Each structure stands twice: as C-alpha cells, then as structure tokens.
Amino acid sequence: HTEDELSRSSHSNPGKSLVNGIKTNPASNSPKSSFPVPMGPPVYVDLAYIPNHCSGKNTDPEFFKRVRASYYVVSGNDAVNGEPSRAVLDALLEGKSQWGENLQVTLIPTHDTEVTREWYQQTHEKQQELNIMVLASSSTVVMQDESFPACKIEF
C-alpha cells in the first residue's frame, strides 16, 4: 500500500490505527500482536525520532533492528508517563547489537532527564562497544521571550 492508501483506509475505518505503518486495533492492549510485522531489509536514515517521545508503548528492539539511523532523537520529558522509557533506551542497545556492522550512532536527548542520565552511566561501556555516542549539550537558544536547549547537527 502507498502512504495515501494507508491514510485513506485509516480514515474510512476509524476503529483502526497505524503502529509502525501496520494497521492495528486500538482496543487491543497489545497492538504489536494484532498483525505480524512482515520481514524485510533494514532502512538506513540519517536522522530518526524515536516514536511517541521514547515511550515503551510502541517502540521495541525491532524498531532499532529495522530503522538504522546515524542519529536518534529522544524527545521524552514526562516521567509520569514513562517518557523517555528505560526499556526503549535498552532496546536501542539490543537492536544495534544485531546490526552486524559497527556504524557510528549518536543519541540526542532533547531533555536532561534522570532516566537518560542513569541509562547513560549504567550502560556506558556497552555504548562504547556498540559505537553509540550520547550527545550532551548545554547550548541554549533564546528567541524573543523564550529560551530552550538546542543541538546543532551537520550532515
């Protein structure tokens, strides 16, 4: 199916939604088990946002086995909802260990959270072994009345 066909079928059938491009039933507590994900070659991209603010609800090691990025952005900053999820950060390590090639990967957290700090400290040796670098930035951008952390990425 093309993206347009998937989009139209989602709108024509409001009881279904998409998880990683696969139609699922949102009433199910386990969307990944609704439809088996077809096997296929991995996709290589420069930059990927970890879905759903790095929530463990729909991101697992399979995501990192299939979506191979030079840079992954972790945008979660909601401890109450488990964002970012330690399980997802661990899934990155598990998924990357299956790549069979030691490509450089940079993880870019958009917020300094306790979860990312603990994960970084506890898995630092494994990160080095897998050629994963966590980008820490103390840069701040100020625009009009607002300031926010920032990171510059060049391709």
From TrEMBL:
Q: Which segments carry the region annotation Disordered? A: 1-36
Q: Name residues in a coiled coil.
A: none
Q: Which GO biological process annotations does it have?
A: axonogenesis; dendrite development; microtubule cytoskeleton organization; regulation of microtubule depolymerization
Compositional bias annotation for Polar residues: 22-33
| This protein's GO CC annotations | cytosol; dendrite; microtubule; microtubule associated complex; neuronal cell body; synapse
Q: Which InterPro entries does the record match to this protein?
A: MAP1 (IPR026074)
What GO molecular functions are on record for this protein?
Answer: actin binding; microtubule binding
**Protein's name according to its UniProt entry:** MAP1A protein
What organism, scientifically named, is this protein from? Cepphus grylle (Black guillemot)
